[in-house]
């Protein structure tokens, strides 16, 4: 992704970063064609994987029954929409840009494209922040989850989208269609700054608002989450070794006593539920992938403006291109993280496909036949021809089943 080009106070233009110059070729407005072909291939593959993966997630969420839907599904849906925004508004325009070498379009389209490119980056980061904040509230302040959690999550998501749109609007005033060099009649979509320190301020602002600030919030939330889980486990562990009932009282029936042993203590780590712990793990993996993909890109961008003698030779151009491609991969790896931690999404989607309906009907038929055989066997065991002892044992077994919910 091209972030900026620099025009000083006197109006002399300097090369943008990342530069398209080949670093030593005779054509001063040329580029490294081999690197460009590699970038086009990777961007095309990234775009296809991001669109297919996120579309699959959205279709699976659409097929999920309402009784299975949860608050996390809403966050995953909007994160997938943000990744699709990155694919269509950032990766696709950059792909077309690399194919044509220069931006071909009017000045208004240049400004809109640069706005939407950064808008997708803001949305992806801030929706990840609000999803992590929701996990923090669920683990550290569980009583607040009873106070209209759906309404709160909707407001958080709407705020993330609105803030992303507002913070990306300065692109309209920074970028414009202009000549690469005065009198060259070669035009590109570049950023222009009145003061010489403009590029430093711009790159620092983008890095801080899209990467540094969100990562600090994410790290803080996960710090509190880990501390809460650790302290809760440490506080509740001795209580599980205590007596199950007060001395002097008659012991409860064996089935009830068995249920009490299996029931977790209120507030223990088990009481967080496997689903809640799984969503915390999923969010942590998504955050880690975001940091791994975007940290090299912003590091190189900051180095490009804060080093006094930074020159865009061919080797540095390759480094910038590779880090930009790595950043774009984040939008196509998130869907597979969702599928890994929410396996029923993929299962529900596959079962809903037309090509799988025949297989599903066949499996249902086999299950029905198996169930009929089991019912026949159970009916025979209750027939008058069986002994009284067998029927008495079945009664005891059904009585123990009544206490099963105690251990859930």
TrEMBL record:
Keywords: Cell membrane, Disulfide bond, G-protein coupled receptor, Glycoprotein, Membrane, Receptor, Transducer, Transmembrane, Transmembrane helix. It comes from the Eukaryota. Residues 1-28, 367-396 are annotated as: Disordered. It is found in: Cell membrane. Residues 1-11, 373-396 have a biased composition (Polar residues). Residues 53-338 form the G-protein coupled receptors family 1 profile domain. GO terms for cellular component: endocytic vesicle; endosome; plasma membrane. Pfam families: 7tm_1, V1R_C. The chain crosses the membrane at residues 40-63, 75-95, 115-134, 155-175, 202-230, 280-298, 318-341. GO terms for molecular function: vasopressin receptor activity. It is a multi-pass membrane protein. One of its GO terms (biological process) is positive regulation of vasoconstriction. Its main location: membrane. InterPro entries: GPCR_Rhodpsn (IPR000276), GPCR_Rhodpsn_7TM (IPR017452), V1R_C (IPR015076), Vasoprsn_rcpt (IPR001817), Vprs_V1A_rcpt (IPR001224). Belongs to the G-protein coupled receptor 1 family. Vasopressin/oxytocin receptor subfamily. This is Arginine vasopressin receptor 1A. It comes from Anolis carolinensis (Green anole).
